[in-house]
Amino acid sequence: MRTLLIDNHDSFTFNLFQYLAQVNGREPVVIANDDPRFRMSDLRRFDGVVVSPGPGRPHRPADLGLARAVIDHTDLPLLGVCLGHQGLCLAHGATVGLVTPRHGVVDHVRHTGADLFAGLPSPLPVVRYHSLAVTDLPAELEPLAWASSDDVLMAVRHRSRPAWGVQFHPESICTASGHDLLANFRDLAGASAGAADPLPPVAAPAPARAVTVRRVDVHPSPERVFSALYGTSKDAFWLDSSLEGERGRFSVMGDAGGPLARVATYDVWAGRVTVGDEVFDGPFLDWLEADLAAHRVAPPDVPFEFALGWVGYLGYELKAEFGGDAAHRSEQPDAAFVFADRALVFDHLERCVYLLTLTDSDGWLGSTEVFLEGFGEGDPVTAAAAGGGAGCVRLRHDRAHYLKLVDACQEAITAGETYEVCLTNAVTWRGEVDPWEAYRFLRAESPAPFGALLRFGELSVLSTSPERFLRVDRRGVVESEPIKGTRPRGATPEADRALRAALATSPKDRAENLMIVDLVRNDLGH
């Protein structure tokens, strides 16, 4: 089945994308609801249309965009999900208004067993993300399902056109039979699952350069080694695991001092990548993908995934290259990376150090091994106390203004303008600070498995985090481990157990974690 998926700029569209691809045997074509290239004549290429969820209100033309014209004029089988469902109903004369918000809520729906619900159990567990709902159906729309908790309408069908809508999210991880519901839509559209689209031919990859590895059976303090080897390096990095245990097993460090090393920076506004004296056109990730293909590295046989290559950061402003607005211009590079052609990897479990290099023409392996063996075991020097004072700190939003922003976020959620908001603040401290001493203090006060010190000339990035944002292993398996929902430690073990139980059974925290799982699934599904 050839499906057009209209994306209302939603955070779950690519969960729908994955489900539709699995059910139909081929990936849907995704277009944004404000894509200026779309023409109604394009619909001739498709067997059906799915209109995604999204923020906002179906009454507002910009929130549905071209989806409204498709709803009004297409004769193709059409399925609207959440906002798409509301848009379908509103277009045919129903009322759409505010209800009690349900975001990340697992509910059950009673249904008639017809059409989309053929063969599905009733009541059916589903996930709801909405602040608006449909009432006052016109004669041409037939109700198919209702929420067990509050009788809100959950699904409809058009009596004379091949059009259906569901208020809940069939693509959510906690919705039962989501694939089956979409398969029913496929069958209602008169198409069976087709063969998967053939993959395009893949060009022969460039030859991969081998990584030379040497294990040194010593385990000196990583902090002291970094200070001695890279303390004066202009461009250097330390991916630091300062927390004991398997999650904090490896630390990696290096700099741009090797014969094949390079430093790349990017300006998203100019669309330019600067590598030494050379300038390349962006977007940055397109350039990076091409560079990685041209300078392939064969992963060595070691107990970790790091295999040399680019190490650095991606700035928030890069969102402008992924459909976001270029709302801010950073004073710093929007991306900065070191191509590490040699590095040290500390194995804190086996208490050894691996030396990795792409070339040893200058005898780096031997000299570094001798250095480490003569360095000896030892603890880092006690970190200095943090400098500065309260008068040096400036908040972008003070407490009073921040609380007003919280109220504004809650109002937007209640009004249906959004169902996910990440409200942040920025703290600025101006004065003399030594990034190295500041990082030493930070890692001592807040040890974490995912710390980092990145140095690019006058710019340093200091980080310590318990979260694994993203991990890709050599098999191509992608893993993300966000942390949501926390409680303070109790004064006694009994208090800890009570807090743990309260966290595990909290409806608010469950809803938030469900939403995060669906968001991560969407991001990994692109």
Automatic annotation (TrEMBL):
Q: Quote the SUPFAM superfamilies the UniProt record gives.
A: ADC synthase, Class I glutamine amidotransferase-like
Q: What is its EC number?
A: 2.6.1.85
Q: Which Gene3D superfamilies match?
A: 3.40.50.880, Anthranilate synthase
Give the record's keywords alphabetically.
Answer: Glutamine amidotransferase, Transferase
- Give the source's domain of life in one word: Bacteria
Q: Which residues form the Anthranilate synthase component I N-terminal domain?
A: 222-355
* Domain Glutamine amidotransferase: start-end pairs: 4-185
Q: Which GO terms describe its cellular component?
A: cytoplasm
Q: Which residues form the Chorismate-utilising enzyme C-terminal domain?
A: 399-525
Entry keyword annotation includes Transferase: yes
EC category name: transferase
Molecular functions per Gene Ontology = 4-amino-4-deoxychorismate synthase activity
Asked whether the keyword Transferase is assigned, the reply is yes
Q: Which family does it belong to?
A: In the C-terminal section; belongs to the anthranilate synthase component I family.
Q: Which PANTHER family match?
A: AMINOBENZOATE/ANTHRANILATE SYNTHASE, AMINODEOXYCHORISMATE SYNTHASE
Q: What is this protein called?
A: aminodeoxychorismate synthase
Species assigned in the record:
Saccharothrix algeriensis
Q: Source organism lineage?
A: Bacteria, Bacillati, Actinomycetota, Actinomycetes, Pseudonocardiales
